[in-house]
Specification:
Blueprint (H helix, E strand, L loop, with lengths): L1 E6 L2 E4 L4 E9 L4 E9 L6 E7 L5 E3 L7 E6 L4 E6 L8 E9 L7 E2 L3 E6 L1
Parallel strand pairs: 2-11
Antiparallel strand pairs: 1-3, 3-8, 4-5, 4-9, 5-6, 7-8, 9-10, 9-11
Length: about 120
């Protein structure tokens, strides 16, 4: 089992920056990908960014490329999402997720952290 706890959400204005973090515990040695997803009100959950745990390779959804940066700290078992030039459409609950090496889906999820961007 892997436990994930997000932190760092809040209310910001358009154009501001915010960093959210995810702390992993438990069987962290089994992690292959760590990712951020988000869900806005009345919308489906969508992929935001992911990072490969062993080599740091990253992937982003098109709408956040150049604005968001996902990073990891293997020693602390944390994943961060630095969000710059935030837009009102980035408002959502952001979830951290982990995929282990023997899985093909994100099996482990955090409780989510609210990010609200006012215009």
């Amino acid at each position: 089992q892997v436990q994930l706890v997000e932190s760092g959400g809040g209310l910001v204005q358009a154009g501001d920056s915010l960093r959210i973090s995810c702390a992993a515990s438990g069987r962290t040695f089994s992690i292959y990908f760590m990712a951020w997803f988000r869900q806005a009100p009345e919308k489906e959950r969508e992929f935001v960014a992911r990072i490969r745990w062993n080599n740091g390779a990253t992937m982003y959804r098109d709408s956040v490329k150049g604005r968001f940066t996902i990073s990891k700290d293997n020693a602390k078992n944390t994943v961060n999402l630095q969000m710059n030039s935030l837009k009102p459409e980035d408002t959502a609950v952001y979830y951290c997720a982990a995929q282990s090496m023997d899985e093909t889906v994100y099996k482990y999820w955090g409780q989510g952290t609210q990010v609200t961007v006012s215009s």
